[in-house]
Amino acid sequence: MGAWVAALLSLCSLLHGRVAAQMSLEDCCTNGQGHGVDKQECASLPLISESTNCRIAQEQCCMAALEDTSCTQGINMAKDEGDCKSLLSGSSCETKTARMCCECCLLGRALQDQKLSCHLGLPVSHQCGQVSHACCLDGAPQNLNNTPPATDTEKKQDDESDEQCRAAGKCSQRCLGNGTCGCLKGYKLKPDGHSCEDINECLLGSYNCRAGERCINTVGSYRCQRVVSCGTGYELTESNICKDVDECETGTHNCGPELECQNTQGSFRCRPRVRCGSGFIQDALGSCIDINECLSQTAPCPSGQLCINTVGSYTCQRNTVNCGRGYHLNEDGTRCVDVDECQGPDAACGGHGCINQLGSYRCECRAGYAFNSISRSCDDINECRHYPGRLCAHKCENTVGSFQCSCTPGFKLASDGRNCDDVNECESSPCSQECANVYGSYQCYCRRGYQLSDVDGVVCEDIDECALPTGGHICSYRCHNTPGSFHCTCPELGYSLAPNGRNCQDIDECVTGTHSCSVTESCFNIQGGFRCLSFECPTNYRRSGEASRPRVERSDIIRCVKSCQPNDISCILDPVHSVSHTVISMATFRDFSKPEEIVFLRTMQPASFSMGVPDIVFDILEGNEHNYFDIIKRYEHGMTVGVVRQVKPIIGPLHVVLKLAMNYVTSGVVSHRNIVNVHVFVSEFWF
């Protein structure tokens, strides 16, 4: 692998001329190898040069290092476990390389076990052949060159014969005589018998790296590189050894000016420059602090003497007579006698009973007070704190020598002065409409159509149902708010209010007889009105079916069929066989989101796809200037159906006549045609 890297570097130099002056290709390769060994990945290579050649060398050498590592893992697995089963499931490049080297090493071991030549005669890759050959020779790694050790005399003769042999150009490195070639240490003879190639000691395991070091193959040798860092306080030397860093010598310590640095293995210590004398102690900053011997030592002075601390030492003084609290010296000043605090002018117990005791006194306190042995006085008892929840039903307030109960809002103090009774606030009519007394408070309610004010929670305000978020859907047409309620109205003409008081329903003027159509016209009811219609058949056509009726339903179709005179050639040749009229009424769609199917043209001819049977083609001839409609063909229950759809929103009122054509086409020619005139009335409203 090292020879391959060297060849790559040489090729890069020939192709690209020169590299950046500040970074050679060897340095770029070394950086890539180090990154691959340390990080075990090449995706995050650092940018060390702007040169493209340097980047290529860095990436290729990094990948070569990863490949060497993976291959070494595979060889070690073949040597230790004797199989490669654990590498069969992986799909990464590293796993594939490790599996290839593991399996090729097993091939070399098989050659060695069968006492065969270590030159694998199979057309495998060059790297597989190298691994197989190395594992086969692994039984005798000390003599990889197949040359016996030579004496000094033999070496001298060999050197002379080597020069003569190399001059003849037969052997690339050493000539052993009798036409035999040999190789230098770190190389092995190729199968051609005269060329030498590098031995990968890392693959063969014939290296002596220490624990924590990794073997890296080089041309003719190998080197050991430390894998684990030295850690804080140590540095890696050129000989790959962790050496202690002398922070005191390098000046990387943080000792203050009054401290001196002392180096230790992996660290350092700060020692005071000045030593403190007797009677002093040195702090962390090197300052000398006086020792209080009177506190730090046990009875430094004899009995009957008082210890007094001094700077750096202490002194002892004889004790003087000192009476404790509650005593004072007698007139002679020789002994301490009791003080009667109850007879003093200061009224020790403050109006409470006082009892003198030796060196002290005791107070007999009145009810609501307790004697404080520390302050020697009668303190008020806070009954509310001493008996929480036991004296008052609600709130307790302490007073001097006693306490007082009170109630929370909504309650009043009972006759016993401790319990609380509920107050009926509704008796004072605090609410504008309805009031309900609750325990400790009250609740205001409003009648239907009103809501409680958010400001005071007492006044009832009218609910404007028409202004609510759903107000637009309360009424079909218009909503009118009233105090406590609302009412709906409909357009003045053509509609009446439904029994539910909210929806508007169409008035059928044709049924109620409130239309104005003549006897020769047909009445057709539409949403919010009516239309007087009169349909006449064109020339050469006669009406089929019933005669004109006073009222036209939506499903009614008035059909005129062709009736030609015997000699009227133009009439006979006219492909239009029938002309029909139909009427539909639609409301304006409130939420138009997808095409709406409005008219269905059903044919009497079954759908057929055989040759010679006419195909039916539907088309809109007139009335679709704004492209509100389209017509599609589909098959239902074996019949051909033309479906007219509204494909764009229409805001009424609108009246449009769609002239539709059903064309019967045979061999690309219209054989005959039926015309359907659809009178579409769109209402102004959605109801």
Automatic annotation (TrEMBL):
Domain Anaphylatoxin-like: 28-62
Record-linked SMART domains: ANATO (SM00104), EGF (SM00181), EGF_CA (SM00179)
Gene Ontology MF terms in the entry: calcium ion binding; peptidase activator activity
Gene3D superfamilies (alphabetical): Laminin
One Gene Ontology CC term in the entry: extracellular region
Localization terms from the record: Secreted, Extracellular space, Extracellular matrix
Start and end residues of each EGF-like domain: 380-421, 422-456, 462-505
InterPro entries, alphabetized: Anaphylatoxin/fibulin, cEGF, EGF, EGF-like_Ca-bd_dom, EGF-type_Asp/Asn_hydroxyl_site, EGF_Ca-bd_CS, Fibulin-1, Fibulin_C
One GO-annotated biological process of the protein: extracellular matrix organization
Family: Belongs to the fibulin family.
Assembly behavior: Homomultimerizes and interacts with various extracellular matrix components.
Protein name: Fibulin-1
The organism of origin for this protein: Scleropages formosus
